[in-house]
């Protein structure tokens, strides 16, 4: 360590010339029971205290990972390489520490939830379309009877049932992106009604 002339005692000019001497290194040591989460906080506090330096040390010299007297704590190594953990840079220590713990717990949950979220879209589409397509079963039955000529002579009840179906469809609510499918169903119901009415007219004497 270099000690300049008069640095230690300016009044008595001690030392009386620039000298180079040996000096012990102050070392921050913790035992195995020390909370790892406090390591970066402890080092950051040391950095704040030593930010301006001293008469013998330049600003920003300490704390430092070198020279090593003991094995460097892994969290200390991370601090020297990258600084404070991201959360501790913006949040109070207690909140950041809790967040770190919960993030570790949330990772498995997120892994499970991602496939579930991917399945929500298809399930939602199926639910909406099921509300529309369930009416087609009845339309298909009437259409088959029309082709087979097996409809009863009195078609009024079938026409009335389809007209009630139109009223029910008017009360069905679906997202705008599925409105075209609902309107297509309206058109198909009206088409079948017109076919039944045409058949009814032909059957009249």
TrEMBL record:
TM segment ranges? 102-124
* Keywords from the named record: Membrane, Transmembrane, Transmembrane helix
Domain of life where this protein originates = Bacteria
What protein name does the entry list? TRAP-type uncharacterized transport system periplasmic component-like protein
From what organism does this protein derive?
A: Pseudomonas marincola
